Amino acid sequence: MCRLAMKTASKPFSPFSVLEAMEAMQEGYDGSGLGLLLRGLEFAEYKYNAKDPILSGIAHSEAALARLNKIMIEAGFELKYDHEFDVKRQMIEAKDRFKYILRVYKQSATWASLSAEEVENRLMLTRLALRKDGEAHGQDLTVFSLWPDVAMIKEVGWPLGVGQALGLDSGRITSRICMAQGRQNTNYGINLYACHPFFIQGVATMTNGENTAFIPIKDWLSGRGFPGYIGYQSDSEVFAHILHYVTKQLKLPLETYKHVITPLKNEELAAHPQGDFLRGLRDACRRLIIDGPNAVIGTLPDETSMLVMDAKKMRPATVGGKPGEWAIASEMCGVDAMIPDRDRSKDFQPMREHTVIIPPDRQELQIWSQFDHLPIHQAA
Amino acid sequence: MVSVRSLANTPSSLTPNDLPWIIEHREDRCTLCGKCAAVCPVNTLKLAYMRKRMPHLVLAATERGSSYKTFVGIRQSTEVSKRCIGCGSCAMVCPNEAIHPVQNGERDRFRFVNSQQGEPAKRGGRRNVPGASLLDRIIFDRISMLTDPALDAGRHEFSCNTLLGRVLPPEEYVRRKLAGEWIPPVREIFPFVIGSMSFGALSPNMWLGLLQGVAYCNEVLGIPVVMATGEGGCPPWVLRSPFLKYIILQIASGYFGWDEIIRAIPEMQCDPAAIEIKYGQGAKPGDGGLLMWFKVSKLIARLRGVPEGVDLPSPPVHQTLYSIEESVMKMIQTMSMAWNFRVPVYPKISGSTSAKSVLNNLVRNPYAGALMIDGIDGGTGAAYNISMDATGHPIAANVRECYLDLCAQGKQNEIPIFAAGGVGKNGNVTQNGMALIMLGASGVHMGKFIMQSAAGCLGTESNRCNVCNIGLCPKGITSQNPKLYRRLDPDQVAQRVVETFMSIRTEVKKVMAPLGRSQSLPIGMSDALGIDDKDVAERLNIRYVC
Ligand code: SF4
Ligand code: SF4
Asked: A223, A209, A196: which is closest to A290 by C-alpha?
C-alpha cells in the first residue's frame, strides 16, 4: 500500500512541506522510495522562464553525463541553468548516483517556427532518446521528464530522508504544484522508472492500488504506435498514458477520463443525457477500462489538478483546502499536515462517480459527477 | 475340428467381445418385459428363444441321455450396422437394472470393419479424445494478493459481457459521432454463446427449449445470451417474433432457409443479433453441412425450400465466390445491406494455420463484425470420423496467434475473435471459456456442451451414442421423428438452459474475483494464465507453472 500527497497553491511552496505531510501518513506505507513531480517552478538562484524545458533524471556515471550532454547539444538544446543539489551522499542508499539532474535548457531557435504539437513531439522524442541511450548502457542514465516547468525526482529510500539528502528542505526550489508518492513500485520488479508519478508530454498521474487489467491495457496502448507509450515497468503507468490519450489524442475534455477508465453501467447510461455517445465511447475505449482499487491523482500542463477513484471506490483519498491552496492525500492527516488552517467540514472524499478538479485559478473545487452532462458539444 | 463352412465366418464377422460396447444382461433379474429391445435406437437387442442342453447320467435304456431346456433371453446383434452404441437407453428403461452397456476399451475390432459398402465411418459428436483437454489444463494463477482486498464474487457487481460487432478506433468513433456518420452496429452479449446448431439438425422441441431458455435468460435474469442457428434458417414464427434479437442467423454455402428469411425481413419486429456466414466448421473442415434424408421432415423441407426426404448436403464452398477475400467482401456487404447496416455480420471459419490471413482480410474490411474460429474439437451432427478426428486446428494456439497479430496492429478491440471447438468438452465449460478469453477471444461458442447440459445428450468422448447423424437420437435432441423428439420436453430444456447460464455466470465471477477483475471481461489477460507444460506455455505465450 502506498500513500499519495499532492498540494497545489497559487503561491510557490517548498516540496519539503509535502514530504512532511507524507510523514503524517507513514503508517500506511513502507517508505521504500520517493517520487516527486513539481510544476510552476521557482529557483532561488535563477530567474526561470516557464517556457524553457527542464530535464530531470539521474546520471549514474560520468560517461553517462557526457553522453547526455552530447545528445542534448546535438538536439540543439542550450544549457541555461544546472541545479546542483546539496547532496548528502551518506544518506542515500544507492551508491551509483553520479549526478542528480535538474537542468533548464533553451530549446533550439529553429523550433520557433514549429507548431506547438511538433515541439511537444520533439521534446518527447529527445527524452525517449536519452532514456534509450541509458538503457543501451546498462541503465546508467535515467530520465524522468523533459518539459517546460516540470521537474521530477525519483529515488529509493525513506521519503523524508531522500528529501533531506537532496537538500529539498533548503527552500532553493519551490513550486505551485507538488505531487509526492512514497513507495517504489513493488508490484513488478524494482526500477526507478517504475516509481510514481508518471509523466508524458506534460500529463502526470500517480496512483495507489493495483491495476489488475494492466496487461490488456498495456497491449492496447503499445499498439497505438505512439512512441511515448512505452515503459510500463509499473502497472500504474497506464493511468498517465490513458489521461494523455484522452486529453491529447482524442482531445476530449478532462471529465471524459473518468468515463473511459470506469464507464457507467448500461442502466446508468440509458438515463444519461449523452448515454448514446458514452456507450459508444465505452465500446471504443473498452481496453482502457481499469480494474482495481485505485485512487488516481493527476495534473495537467495548465496546472489543473484532479482526483478520481476506481469504479468501486476501494481506495481512500481526501481533498481539502481553501481558495488559493488545496491538498489531496490518501488520508485526512495528510491533508491536515499540508493545509492545517482550512475549514475541514468542506473536505471532500470523492465517490465512484466523481472527478474532483482543481482548476488553475485554484479558487474552488469542482466536483463533477459522471451522471452530469459532459462538457462537449453535440455528442448526444 | 468342425468344417469351416459351418461357422458364421466372413471378414466382417464379429463377436460381442469385438464390439465397442458390450451388453451385460442379467437373466436372473430380467422380467422379459421387452422395453430395452423396444427402446434401443439401433435395434441391436433381440428377445430370443434359446435352447440349452441339460445333460444328465441315465442308466435306464428307456430314457434319452440328454434333455433340453428352453429359455428366453436378450442377445445383442454383432452386425456392423446394428452394433450397440452404448447409449444406455436400455438401462434407462429397464425396471430391474438387468441390462447395461459396458465399454470394451481397446479390444474393439469393430473399428476395422466399420467401412461396409465402402462407406467410411461417420458419426455425430466430437473428436473423441478422452482425458483432460489442453484447455482443461490451463489455470488462473495471477491471484490478486498484493495490495488488495480480493473482490467478492457473491456481493460485488461484475460486468462480464462482451461485444459482438465492429468497434471503431476511438479517434474514428469520436470523429464520426460528432459528424453524425454511420457507426457500425455492436451488440453487448454474454460471452458464452450457444453455437450454431441448425433447425433440422436439432429437433423442434430442442430448438424451442433452447429459445425459451435464452429468452428467459435475457428477459428475466438479464443475462444477454444469444444463440446461433446453423444453416437452415429458423421457424417462420420466430423470424417474425421479438425473440429474433437473441438469434444469430447463419448463412452457409447451401443458403438453406434464406428464402424464408428474406421474405420475412419486411415483417420482422426486430433485427437479429447478428449474421454468421459459415465458411468452415471445426469438426469437418472442407465439408459442407449434411442433413440426411431421414431428418428432412415436412417442416424442415418447407423451411429449406426442398422436397421432403432428400439428402441435403451443402456444397463445401460458396459457389458464387472464388476466393475468401471476395467472399468476405461480397457476402458481408450484401448481408449488411439486407438489414441496412444495423446488424453485425461476421464469418465463421475452421481453425487453420491460415486463419491469420482471413483475419487480416477482415481487418481491411470495414463491415466485418468479428471472426469466429471453430477448432478441431468442435462438434457436429454428422461427419466422417476422419474429418472429426484428424482434420482441423486446435483452437487455443489459433486464437492466441490471431489475437497477438491484432495486438501488433493495435486492432484487438476492433475485431472481436470468437472461439469454439471443445469448450466444455469435459464439463469445465467456464474454465475452458475463460482460458480462451484470457488468451484473446472475446467470447466462445458452445454446442455439444449445451446439448449435454441442457438436454441430457448421451454422447461422450468415448464414442458413446454419437448417432446424431441418423435421426435416431434416443433423447430426441437431434431427431425429426416425433416419436423420438416428444421424449424431450421443451420446458425442461428451457429450465436447464437457464440453470446452465446461471451457473456459468457465477463461475465467471468466481474466476474474475480472485484475479481482481470486475469491471470488464478479462480479454487478453494472459498474465493470469498458467499451464504445467513448458512447450505449450511457450507456444501460447503464457506462464509455465508447476
Ligand atoms: S446401450 Fe443403447 S444401443 Fe446399446 S443395447 Fe442399450 S439401448 Fe441399444
Ligand atoms: S443423445 Fe442424441 S444428440 Fe446426444 S450423442 Fe446421442 S444422438 Fe447425438
From this structure: A209
Q: Do B525 and A280 touch (CB under 8 A)?
A: no
Q: Write down all domains in chain B, each with its CATH number in brackets.
A: 12-110 (3.30.70), 134-158+190-544 (3.20.20.70)
State the DSSP string of B33-95.
--HHHHH-TT--EEEEEEEEEEE----STTS-SEEEEEEEEEEE---GGG------HHHHH-T
Contact B522 A210 (CB under 8 A): no
The pLDDT value given to residue B351: 95
Q: Report the b/e string of A191-213 with b at 16+ CB within 10 A.
A: ebbbbbbbbbbbbbbbbbbbbbb
CB B426 within 8 A of CB B461: yes
Q: What is the share, in percent, of chain A residues with pLDDT greater than 90?
A: 80
CA Rg value for chain B: 26
β-partners of residue A181 are A4, A35
pLDDT digits (tens, 9 = 90+) for A47-96: 999 999 999 999 999 999 999 999 999 999 999 999 999 999 999 888 88
Judged against a pLDDT cut of 60, whether residue A102 lies above it is answered with yes
Identify residues of A whose CB sits under 8 angstroms from chain B CBs.
Answer: 1, 186-187, 208-210, 212-216, 219-220, 222-225, 245, 249-250, 252, 262, 265-266, 277, 280-281, 283-287, 289-293, 311-312, 314, 377-379
Asked whether the predicted pLDDT for residue B197 surpasses 60, the reply is: yes
Q: Is the pLDDT of residue B292 over 90?
A: no
Residue with cell 446383434: B77
Residue B294 reports pLDDT greater than 80: no
Provide the phi-psi class of A251: left if phi over 0, else alpha when psi is between -120 and 50, else beta. Answer: left
**By the 8 A CB rule, do B39 and B90 touch?**
yes
With contacts defined as CB-CB under 8 Å, which chain A residues touch B526? Answer: 215
CATH fold, domain A3-48+149-379, is Glutamine Phosphoribosylpyrophosphate, subunit 1, domain 1 (3.60.20)
Q: Whole-angstrom Cα distance, residue B98 to residue B440?
A: 50
| Structure confidence at residue B257 as a pLDDT band (50, 70, 90) | confident
CB atoms near residue B71 (< 10 Å): 11
Segments in B120-276 forming alpha helices (H):
134-137, 170-179, 204-216, 236-239, 258-264
Q: How far apart are the first and last CA of chain B?
A: 61
Task: Encode pLDDT of A168-188 as tens digits.
Answer: 999 999 999 999 998 765 544
What CA–CA distance (Å, rounded) separates A215 from A204?
20
H helices, E strands: number in chain B? 18, 21
Mean pLDDT (whole number) for A129-151: 96
Domain boundaries, chain A: 3-48+149-379
Closest CA to B454 of B418, B495, B482, B414: B495
Q: Is any atom of ligand 2 closer than 6 Å to the C-beta of B465? A: yes
Kindly write down the DSSP assignment for every residue of A286-337, as one continuous string: GGG---SSEEEEEE-TTS-EEEEE-TT--S--EEEEETTEEEEESSHHHHHH
CB B488 within 8 A of CB B455: yes
The interface residues of chain B toward chain A in range 401-460, judged by CB-CB distance below 8 A, are 407-413
**What value does the mean pLDDT take over residues A373-380?**
68
Q: Which residue has the cell 496492429?
A: B409
Strands B192-197, B443-446: pairing is parallel
Written as nine digits, the cell of B433 is 471459456
Mode of pairing for the β-strands spanning B192-197 and B227-229: parallel
* Those residues with Cβ within 8 angstroms of residue B440's Cβ, 6 or more apart along the chain or in another chain: B399, B400, B402, B403, B404, B406, B407, B412, B417, B523, B524, B526
User: Over the stretch B121-152, which tens digit does the pLDDT of each residue have?
Assistant: 999 999 988 899 999 999 999 988 765 557 88
Enumerate the residues of chain B whose CB falls inside 8 A of the CB of residue A214.
527
